[in-house]
Write a structure and sequence with these properties.
By secondary structure, this protein is an alpha+beta fold. The protein contains eleven helices and ten strands.
Length: 364
């Protein structure tokens, strides 16, 4: 069996990579990181113009009806540039939430706006995985109270998709009375995550209360694969930069890449990443085409990429020596992107435990 990209997917990959490389260079990422919003408006406009936000939106609602694997290629390209645009919420998770759990009227209202970029979405799934003291959500009728941590892509979101109790999804407008949004400080300044505080906020339930269990599981699976794709792109670039530096940096009148120790460091990074790439590719493929494997593979892809990405980020910095820690090289942007992706939607230990439960190896 040959598992590779089709001609159309190669064109998509090249087009999206070119867009991000041209419009999200390192200097631009530095500038956006200082704003605290995790949002580059000019880059966002180009993404909207390219039309890829509607990747997972059905055609009757103005989308492209592409496969999840196609969307995966976009996310990987964004990770290569640590692109400060809210693709995870607006392109992946919010369209899935509305498509899988929403009523026909909600689909007609929200999906065209998401596909066209008129509406930017943040997604809050953190309370499904763990709760901190004084966090948690309570829904009474259509009024929501409580606190949800680590809402993703929250910096400039127009709406928030909030998971409540594992079986209900709600839409909340940014300007809803009683909602307060506190941006959280994380290691990755190219992404905005927030704490959402609800004080009897009137929300719009997607579909019916208690009827979104399957949609939430699909969102978790998609989100984990999406984060793995982002880390895959970031790790790929860190290897490329380490190899290029090893070929240029001279010590004892020879490139450091000629020394066996440095050769082994670079070779080990490549050897670690390539099988991981195959694993994540299959997880993205399974999401659409092998439903019986989808949830387990999403867990394995997220957990394994988190571990491999962390090792590659560390090793790539070491290849650069002291220069690797400087802002001049900018390696810390990819390093920190991989670090945040590792923790969002469950760290490796938690996600592996979930995979073990799915396979019946341990009790839930």
């Amino acid at each position: 069996m040959e598992f590779g990209l089709s001609e159309e997917q190669v064109i998509l990959q090249e087009s999206v990579r070119r867009l991000f490389e041209e419009q999200s260079p390192l200097d631009r990422v530095r500038d956006i990181a200082e704003t605290g919003t995790g949002f580059d408006e000019a880059l966002w406009s180009s993404v909207v113009e390219l039309g890829i936000l509607g990747a997972l939106v059905p055609e009757q609602y103005g989308g492209l009806a592409m496969s999840f694997f196609d969307a995966f290629l976009v996310l990987e390209a964004a990770g290569r540039c640590t692109a400060p645009v809210p693709l995870l919420g607006t392109m992946i998770l919010a369209p899935l939430a509305v498509s899988l759990a929403g009523s026909e009227a909600q689909k007609e209202e929200y999906l065209p706006k998401l596909a066209s970029g008129q509406c930017r979405a943040s997604v809050a799934l953190g309370e499904l995985l763990a709760q901190r003291d004084e966090a948690g959500l309570t829904l009474e009728g259509d009024k929501l109270s409580g606190k949800s941590l680590y809402a993703m892509d929250a910096g400039i979101a127009d709406i928030f998709v909030v998971a409540i109790g594992g079986d209900t999804l709600a839409l909340v407008a940014r300007d809803a009375p009683g909602l307060s949004i506190n941006l959280l400080l994380t290691i990755d300044k190219t992404r905005a995550v927030a704490e959402l505080n609800f004080d009897n906020v009137i929300v719009e339930i997607l579909g019916e209360a208690g009827g979104a269990s399957e949609a939430i599981i699909s969102m978790l699976d998609a989100g984990r694969i999406a984060l793995a794709a982002d880390s895959l792109g970031a790790a790929d670039v860190m290897i490329e930069k380490a190899v290029a530096y090893a070929q240029e940096r001279q010590q004892f009148n020879r490139p450091i890449g000629s020394f066996q120790a440095v050769k082994h460091m670079c070779a080990d990074m490549v050897a670690d990443l390539e099988p991981t790439r195959a694993l994540i590719w299959y997880a993205a493929h399974a999401f659409d085409h092998v439903p019986e494997d989808a949830r387990m593979m999403a867990c394995h892809a997220k957990a394994h990429m988190s571990e491999v990405g962390t090792t590659i980020a560390k090793t790539a910095v070491e290849v650069h020596g002291g220069m690797g820690f400087t802002d001049l090289m900018g390696l810390h942007y990819w390093f920190k992107r991989i670090g945040l992706n590792r923790q969002l939607l469950g760290g490796p230990e938690e996600v592996r435990h979930e995979a073990a439960v799915i396979q019946g190896w341990v009790a839930a």
